[in-house]
Amino acid sequence: MSAAHWVEPVDVRVVAGTAEALFRGTFGGAADGVWAAPGRVNLIGEHVDYAGGLVLPFALPYVTVVAVRVRGDGILHAVSTHTDESWQGPLADVAPGHPAGWAAYVAGVVWALRRSGHLPAETGFDVAVHSTVPVGSGLSSSAALECAFALAVADLAGLPTDHAGRRPLIAASILAENEIAGASTGGMDQSVAMLARPGHAVLLDCRDGATRQVPLDFDSAGARLVVIDTNAPHRLVDGQYGNRRAAVEKACADLGVATLRDVPDPDAAVAALGSPAAARARHVLTEIRRVTEVAGLLDRGRIADIGDALNRSHASLRDDYEVSSVELDSAVDAALAAGAWGARMTGGGFGGSAIALVPADRVDAVAENVVRRAESATLPTPQFLSAEPSGSAHRL
Ligand code: ADP
Ligand code: MG
User: Fold this and answer.
1) Domain range enclosing 285
2) CA-CA to 226 of 20 to 30 Å: which in 65, 158, 344, 360?
3) pLDDT tens-digit readout, 180-190
C-alpha cells in the first residue's frame, strides 16, 4: 500500500523568494513589491452563491505570490513558475477572450479596474507569479492569482486596501474571471481571499455581499480538517456548471422570485417544480439551511457536531444536484469508513477536492484509507493538504 502524500504548506517568505527570483531572472532588477493571496476551501454552502445563498469558506495556508513592478507604457508582461507560457501585450487590447490562457486572470484585473475608473490608462506592469495552491483542484488558485495581483495594483496605484477598499478589488477580480477569462463563477472565492482572518471562516451572504467572521478553531476540538485533492481535475468547462446555474435561474422564473433565497416556503416551492428542477431547488434550499446550522454550531464552539451537516451536504450534492463524481464519492466514503466525523465534496464538483473533519488521531488512517480505496478502484491517487484557517491577501 502506498503512503498518503501530504502537500505541506510552505512559508510565505519562501514562496515570495521564488517569485522574486523569477522576477529578477525575467525582467532584471527588483520588483516594486511582493503580494500574497490564499487559496480557499468551502466548509459548507456549495452551489448556492449564485442563488443568493450563504457560504462558509475559509482561507488555506497555501498562497499565490506576485512580484510586481510598474511600467509607464500601458504594457503587461506576465510570467509564472506554473507554465512556460508568458504573455506580453498592451493592456488597451484586453477584452473578453483576450488574452487567452492564464494571463487573462492577471490582465482582466487591470481591465476591470480601468473600466471602473480606478486606474490610469498609461499604467503597465511586469508580473512574476509563484504559487503553492494546487492549480485546477477546486481550491481557487484562480482567485488567489486575481486577488494577489489586484492588491498589488491597488497598493502601487495608491488606492485604499483596507476592508472598504477591498470591495472594489473583489468586484474587479470577479469581473476578470467572468468576463476576460470567461469562467462563470460566483463571488465566494474572491471575497474569502480578500477578507479572511486566521482562525475564522467567512460567512458570506451572497445576496448582498455582507460578511461575518465565524470562529473556527479545529485544534480546540481535537479535530483536523483534511483537504483531499482527488487529482481528478474539476471539469467545469464541459457546461455542467452553466447548466446548473441555468436550472436555478429557470426555477426562480417559474417560482416568481429573484433568487431561491427569497422563496418564502421552501417545501411548497419544491413541490411546485417538476423534475429535475425540484431536486436542484431542494439542494439549494436545504444547503442554505445547513450553512445557517453549521455557522450556529461554530458560534457555540461545537466543531465536532458539524459532521452530520457535512454528510447531508454531500448526499444532497450527489443525489439532488448531481455534481459529485466517482472520485469524490470514493474519497468521502473512505474517509467516513476510517473514522471521519463528516466529509463532503467541496467546490464546483465533477472532480476537484473533498474535505473530511477528522479526529486528530485518525488523520493518517483516514488519508491511507482514501488512497487505498482510490487505488483499488484504479482512480487517480489523491493527495492531502492541511486546512488551518488562514489570513487574507497582504503585502509582504
Ligand atoms: P482553481 O481555481 O480551482 O484552481 P480554475 O480552473 O478556476 O481552478 O483556475 C485555474 C487556472 O488559473 C489555471 O488554469 C491558470 O489559467 C490560472 N492559474 C492559477 N494559478 C496560476 C499560477 N500560479 N500561474 C499561472 N496561472 C495560474
Ligand atoms: Mg477557480
Assistant:
1) 219-386
2) 65
3) 999 878 889 99
